[in-house]
Write a structure and sequence with these properties.
Elements (H helix, E strand, L loop, with lengths): L2 E3 L4 H9 L4 E3 L8 H8 L2 E4 L11 E3 L5 H12 L17 E4 L1 H4 L5 H6 L3 E4 L5 E3 L2 H14 L1
Parallel strand pairs: 1-2, 1-3, 3-4
Antiparallel strand pairs: 5-6, 6-7
Helix pairs in contact: 1-3
Amino acid sequence: MKFIADCMFGKLARWLRMAGYDTAYVWPKEREKLISNARIENRIIITSARKIKYQYEKVFIITDIFAEKQFVKVVKEFNLDFESAFTLCTKCGCSLVKTDKESIIKKIPSDVAAWCDEYFLCENCGSIYWKGSHYEKIKEVFLKLKT
């Protein structure tokens, strides 16, 4: 299942990527491409603009303003699981690959390097991830939603 988030849903797009779902994001200046990109890439549009429902058949309307509530609604509506969680870059949505500490040691904070040995690198934008306190908090959210 693939999504495309309208420009007001950037945080939701990051949540969906953390959950392992291919989620494109349309910046405000590119909003006119929302429907055409959704059609070309066979994506479900997430938006608050009700008029889009009349222009494209796969639209999910969200009116909540808080990203966590938006995320819960999407998870419930589409019965999402979290089997591919933490496999996509939250910034660009591309795949993360496990990387060795030595190759990125100059790019990570020294206090993190002191306790963490497992790192993941985005193949596209070069962002680096590790399982820190944010990982545990997000994992708890996913576990609560599974039950």
